[in-house]
Every structure is written in C-alpha cells, then in structure tokens.
C-alpha cells in the first residue's frame, strides 16, 4: 500500500466516547496520517441516542485539542465512501479509511459500500474476538481481501452514568429511555450545550 496522508474514520459516534478517540489517535499514529476526519453516520437503522447535530457538537468538543483530528458531517444517507471522500477533497491526498464493526454490519447490503471495500484497503475495529472472526468470514465470502482488523478489547469502552446524569442540560442531549452514557465526556462542559 502506498503512503497515505489522510484518514477517514466512519462510525456512529452516538455519542462519541473515549474508545472512539483512542481509536482515531491510534489510526493517525500507526499510519502516520497528517489528518483524520471523524465522520458520523447520517442515519442508522437502529435507534439513535443523540441527534446528528448534537453528535457533531460532541465530536468537535472531543477533538478540539487534537489539531490533526477534524469532523465532517456527511449529507447523504447512503454510505457512499468514495463520494464522501471526493466531497471533502482534502488536497487530493492519498487516503485510508477506518470503520467500526457496526458500520460494516449495517451497510453490507449497499452496493456502493461493497464496491469500495472490494477495491480499497481499509481498517476495521472489532470489539471482541467473536466479532473479529465473524468479519473475517463475511469478508472471505464476499471475496474482500485488502483489510486490516484491529481487536480493541482493551480500549476504554465501558460506560458510566455517574458524571453526566446529575446534570440536566447535558442529559437532555440523550434519549433518557436508553440511558446510554459515555465515560469521561471528553472535555465537555454543560455550558457548551446551553
């Protein structure tokens, strides 16, 4: 694979958590990328916990001290990776994408998505050995060969209610029935959302 400069990290970021940030930094550092764009999915077939507007604000807050990380809001519902990369058109640099496992599983029915995966090298984050093995089987059946899978069992993916639920203004960003709270909240302050 030729040297790449720009990375694109596709995930739900619903909402962004410490593990997402660690993955973005690992992606940047391992591939010596100048810039990594964090791109939240526009829509999902599963229930969303935070609206896309709030997800973008949370991402921007989380990455503001990391100047090599940037956010980008995709406008289309279909995950056409090549079209999104072309729309960013960041100095026509060589690029590499990283996907969370959930993004892969959710979009396997899309032809644009499969076409991109079959022609380009990409990285997938797997949160368990079972998911990693399932991805390998799927890629083998689809004859997709140019991939790397990272097993991220040790990343900070545990969620805690303690830091956020006591604050009404931040809690309002989330669907209270889901009670899906990120650990650490990545430098966020309640006044950012007032």
3D structure, described in words:
The protein is of the alpha/beta class and 194 residues long. It has a single domain (6-185), classed as Rossmann fold. Helices cover 34% and strands 16% of the residues. It contains seven helices and six strands. It has helices at residues 18-30, 52-63, 81-88, 101-107, 111-119, 129-141, 168-171; strands spanning 6-11, 35-40, 69-71, 95-100, 122-126, 147-151. The protein has a six-stranded parallel beta sheet with strand order 3-2-1-4-5-6. The radius of gyration is 17 Å and the shape is globular. The termini are far apart. The model is unreliable at 156-167 and 174-194 (pLDDT under 50).
Query: How do the SSEs run, as a string of H and E?
Result: EHEHEHEHHEHEH
Helix content: 25-40%
Q: What does the radius of gyration come to? A: 17 Å
User: Which structural class matches the secondary elements?
Assistant: alpha/beta
- In spatial order, strands of the major sheet run 3-2-1-4-5-6
Kindly identify the CATH topology.
Answer: Rossmann fold
Number of strands: 6
The quaternary structure here is single chain
Separation, N- and C-terminal Cα atoms = 46 Å
CATH architecture: 3-Layer(aba) Sandwich
Largest β sheet strand count, sense and barrel closure = 6 strands, parallel
Can you count the helices?
Answer: 7
What is the class in the CATH system? Alpha Beta
**How many structural units, i.e. domains?**
1
What is the CATH H-level superfamily?
HUPs
Instruction: Give the mean pLDDT.
Output: 77
The residue ranges in which pLDDT falls below 50 over 5 or more consecutive positions are 156-167, 174-194
What coarse outline follows from CA principal-axis ratios?
Answer: globular
What share of the residues does DSSP label as strand, in percent?
15-25%
């Amino acid at each position: 694979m030729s040297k790449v400069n720009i990375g694109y990290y596709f995930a739900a970021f619903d909402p962004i958590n410490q593990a997402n940030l660690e993955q973005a930094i690992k992606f940047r550092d391992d591939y010596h990328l100048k810039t990594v764009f964090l791109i939240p999915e526009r829509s999902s077939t599963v229930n969303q916990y935070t609206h896309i507007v709030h997800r973008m604000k949370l991402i921007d807050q989380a990455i503001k001290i990391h100047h090599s990380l940037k956010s980008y809001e995709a406008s289309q519902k279909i995950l056409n990776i090549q079209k999104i990369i072309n729309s960013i058109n960041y100095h026509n640099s060589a690029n590499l994408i990283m996907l969370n496992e959930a993004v892969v599983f959710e979009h396997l029915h899309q032809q644009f998505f499969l076409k991109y995966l079959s022609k380009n090298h990409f990285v997938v984050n797997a949160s368990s050995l079972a998911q990693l093995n399932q991805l390998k089987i799927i890629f083998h059946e689809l004859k997709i060969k140019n991939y790397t899978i990272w097993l991220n069992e040790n990343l900070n993916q545990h969620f805690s209610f303690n830091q956020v639920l006591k604050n009404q203004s931040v809690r309002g960003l989330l669907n209270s029935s889901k009670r899906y709270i990120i650990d650490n909240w990545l430098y966020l302050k309640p006044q950012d959302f007032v």
